[in-house]
Amino acid sequence: MNPLPPSRVTATALLGGPLPAAALHAVATRGGGPVSEVRSLLTGRPAATVPHSTPADVFTAIATAADAQRVWARRTERDRRAALARLDRWIARHRRYLGELLAHGSGLCGTDTADELRAAVRALRPGRRPLLPRARALPRVRELPRPRPATTVATHTDDGRPLASLVEAAVPALLDGSAVLSHVSPRAAVLAARLCAAAVSAGLPAGIWRLVIAPSGSLTAAVLDEHAETVIPPCCPAPGPGARRPGLLVVRHDARPRMAVTRAGLACFSRAGQGCTAAPLVAVHDSHHDTFLRRLADLAAQLPVGTPGKPSAALSSLPGSGACADFARFARGIAHDPRLHPVLTGRHRPDLAPYLYEPVVARTARGPGPGPLPDPALLAALPPGPLALIVRYTHWSDVLALARHTGRHATLVTNGPPAHLAAQFAGLPADDIR
């Protein structure tokens, strides 16, 4: 007789040991669904056992959250901000602890962990701004009634930014008086549950912030979106195999080379190329191509390589054996692909972490002209990872043609404000121009 799957999330010492009662209460699982064994991305050892939520768990969580929302909505905006300010202070006091959770659970290196914590704190800052008192000398003005806040708000997290994306989506809804149901992956479940427990300790009512644990694109996630009153969709839904739209970074003719290389290094190699804002595709103007290629390869070769959990490390781990194998297969195939030319071929470093891979830099093969532009099938098959694929261009129209096959995030490295070029991307997938 097979034992019943566990109905509670269990964590080993790598992820802080047993979860407190408030963390377990935040997780919407009662057993009956699949169970994931989460392994540390630093050591490969088991770190947690995470049961998935089922559609029935979603209905129960929505009902519980709606009850808590009636209590939360009756509190003043000042009280809600004060509670979130206490959560902000909890994050500041537990930076090292959260860094260990991010390292073992998400494989983030010291540099990326610090960036993740800064982003989470920025998202919580609205809770620290004091409300302005009403000036006594001003006449009383009749205020229009505010729209009723949504009872339940569904949010989705990004595994490339597990803490920041969780907080950025939840905080505005909580400030507005709504209950939040956050869809998280099994790998991010322990971190999210501990944050929800800290929120209860900071003064948020139990049940106001629930977690639905399910893989992206699952039936459970779809049920959550259908039955929550408001949905905050993910920035970029997870693509299917061979259907990726990579981010794009463009180095224009008037860019400063040193700044271009620095920004490309962050866009291509930080967080091991995970997350929708990663930009493995770099279009470089003719006037900068050779110098940029040489400097970027030097930067990638000199990145501090070490165990991702160390503060000095600058390379994060890939999120598992499957992602590592896919990236290794692509890196090995560059030398045999007539469309590509290898510049820097990284290697797998299991001596440091099971799924750590060094950066890879390649360029498109030279054709009869300044291009050619990459094959769209090649772009769709680019695996997430620390990768920079350099495309040489001469005319701005080449960049716009390339942008037809990229994602919604595009970074323009130029000496002027990128905003004056944003209108030229109208009708293209890229709508977040930085």
Task: Describe the structure concisely for a colleague.
The chain is α/β, with parallel strands linked by helices and 434 residues long. The protein is 37% helix and 15% strand. It has helices at 21-26, 55-74, 77-93, 95-106, 110-124, 162-175, 189-201, 219-227, 257-269, 289-301, 321-333, 376-380, 396-402, 419-422; strands spanning 10-11, 35-39, 46-51, 152-156, 179-184, 209-213, 230-232, 248-251, 281-285, 340-344, 360-364, 387-393, 409-413, 432-433.
What topology emerges from the helices and strands here?
Blueprint: E1 10-11, H1 21-26, E2 35-39, E3 46-51, H2 55-74, H3 77-93, H4 95-106, H5 110-124, E4 152-156, H6 162-175, E5 179-184, H7 189-201, E6 209-213, H8 219-227, E7 230-232, E8 248-251, H9 257-269, E9 281-285, H10 289-301, H11 321-333, E10 340-344, E11 360-364, H12 376-380, E12 387-393, H13 396-402, E13 409-413, H14 419-422, E14 432-433
Parallel strand pairs: 4-5, 4-7, 5-6, 8-9, 8-13, 9-12, 11-12, 13-14
Antiparallel strand pairs: 1-3, 2-3, 10-11
Helix pairs in contact: 2-8, 4-5, 5-6, 9-10
